[in-house]
Each structure stands twice: as C-alpha cells, then as structure tokens.
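[step 3/7] fold_predict: job queued, chain A
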Amino acid sequence: MSEKLLIRLLSFETSLCEWALVTAQGQLAGDVTQGSLEEPPSSLSNTAAGRQVILLVPGEEVLLQRAALPVNNTSKVLQAAPYLLEESLTEDVETLHFTAGAKMASGEFPLAIIARERMRQLVDWLDAAGLNNVIALPEPLLLPLKTEGESAEWVALVEDSRVVFRAGQHAGFSVEQDSFPLLLEQLLQESGSTKGEDEPQAQRLRLIGHNIPSLSLPEGIHASLDEIPSTHTLAAFAPQVQNIDKPMNLLQGAFNRRPQLGNVFRVWRLTAALAFICLLVLMGGSISEYVQLKQRETELNAAIENVLKTTFPDIKRIVNPRAQMKSRLNALQRNAGGGGQFLPVLSAVSQGLSSIPGVTLNSLNYRAGRLDVEFDAKQLGEIDRLKQALEKNSLLKVTVQSANQDKDRVRGRLRVEMQS
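[step 4/7] structure written:
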C-alpha cells in the first residue's frame, strides 16, 4: 500500500487543520504541517496529488447514532432514517446530512449526522485546495480500537482541553475535558444496564496522549496509558489510516464529489446560472410560490409512499404516508429495546448546556430512564432558559427539581426524561 495523506480539521470556525503523510505501516512520514483549509498553501495540493486523502472532521460537529430498519439497501436507510430520528433531533432534519455505514451484526445501521451547512463549507474548502479522492470521517471513528473476543476496550485521545472518545466500532464523541469523567460514568452505567447487570461491568479504557493529565475516572474503569512521543495528535490516528473498512464517509449523497464532472460543472456554473435567470426573464416571470409548494408537497408524499411500500410491504392501504411511516419506525425503535435512551438524552442535554454560557455542569445521574442534571447558574433566569432550550426537543420531558440561591450563584437541578 502507498502513502496516504491524513488531514485533521481542528475547527470549522478558524478552518485550521494539520496534515502529514502516513506510511503503509501506519506511521507518520515527515513533519506535521499546520495551515488553513480555507486558504491552503500550494504545498497541500502538491502533497495530495495522486494520493488517497483521509480527512477527519471534529467530533463535536457529528452525531453518531444507530437505527434498526428491515432493509439491506443503504440508500433506503438514508431515505427512512430522517423520519425515524426527526423528533429526537434538536434541528430540522431538512438542515441535516445523513450518512449510513454497513449493516451491523445486530441488524442496525450506523448513522453519522452533520449540518448541511458544515458540509457545504467543507466541500468549498476541498475544492479551493484542489483535493480529490477524499474520504471524510468523524474523528472518533479513526481512533485505534482493540478487541478481545466479544469484549472491546474504549479508547480516548486526551488533548489540552478536550477528549476524543470511541466506545465501539461506530460509537463515540468529542467533549470538553472537564465534562468527560461525568459522561464516562453515565456511559459506564448505561453499558452495564443494557447487559442486564446490577453493577456496571469493569471496562477497559486506553488513554492516548502526550503528557496525559490526571483524570478523575469513575470506579469500574481499568485505565491504561499509551503515550505518543509528540504533541502532534495525528500520531494517534495514523495506525488506523491504512485499515479503514467500509468507512462512514460523510462525502456521500448530495455531497458525493466526482472530481472530473465536478470540475467541468464548476467552470460553467456561473454561466449556466446567468443563462437560466435570463431565460426566466424572457419567459415573463417565475412560477408562483403556491404552485411550487404544492408540487413539492406532492413529490414528497409520493417519495414517502414509495419508501413505505418498499420497506413495509405488509401495508396494504396507505392513507397518510408520513404518519404511517413515523408510526412503523417508532414501533421498530421501541422493539429494539429501551437501553438506547441515554445517549439521545445526553446529546440533547449537552447541546442545551452549551447554548447557555452562564451555566456550569456539576453532576449527572442517570437511573431508570431519567437523567438528573445538577448545575450552577449566574442568574435564576438562566435555569428557565436552559429548560426552554431542552424542551425544544418534543420527545423530552423537563422538570425543575430545585433552584437555590448560594451567594453569587444559583444551584439548579433539572430532571430530563423521554416523554412516555
């Protein structure tokens, strides 16, 4: 196998990234270079020429989920998944991009979900850098995962202020370092409860990093340290680059880049757009908004009905395709077991906390489908704003358990659970 180019995007806000070549033995070749992906140096495209490019996307931007569907075709999974997950996501599914991996032994499909706006931003940067033959992956999924029989260790890359965590073949997230021990404890409890055990089973955790700081890990974690010889975190991902198996490439569907055709289209895109506008003017106007919306509604209903007939052939009479699709998918999710409630609830709480700058997380306690969140706030009104932010998810029931003034802080406690 030849060398591959590994690029890690560090931030969408700054477009800062780092890159290096990786040998066939999974080791970094040469120096690690940093630069802007929005305004890339010519050396980046020169290095990428003729090579496979692996691009890592920040884990905070990608939600990793699983969905149980009675199909084997990935394209049908991508058609059905938005309807299955619509009510558990805080954002409109029309603004999200879904990617599906290969069907797992459990019968579920792994999913990666990211904002379409981020994907458009990413594709524009790749075009500007002249990068083709690219596989874009959520960064947790390239951490090296070791398994022994049916038991798999967890692995965490510990950086200055954040942790990239992988908990299985298709599971993981990135989080601020201060919040990692709390999330790890809840995940450990959830892992034990889904196995039907009274106490969480001891779990192996491998910590990777350079000068790894001391972390307050929960009981039941057997941690080992794996020091990398430099502060360049690309060294932690390099061993896995040559062994990507059926990757969950984010550059699929609407963002599937076909270099040759794409380059031709980009040259003529502005000309074609201007010609189309002139054609509309010559024709005397555009189609009315009402006609456009009715046509879109008709096409959407027809598409849903087609997916419904294909996925659930036992349905003989279709009255309301959208409602029937939601009903069937929700039933499948319930039949798959209730042990998967923790991560959706935790994801919603994490997004809610990040939206209120004055709130500081103190502890989490998950039991019997309920997540108790204890936190400090600067003002009493921030508790109400946090509750309102969480209630934007129609599947969540949020209750204020307490709110007490303590000197210059307000100590609050919320209970978050799925609607029954």
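[step 5/7] annotate
The chain has a mean pLDDT of 80.
The chain has ten helices and 19 strands.
exit 0
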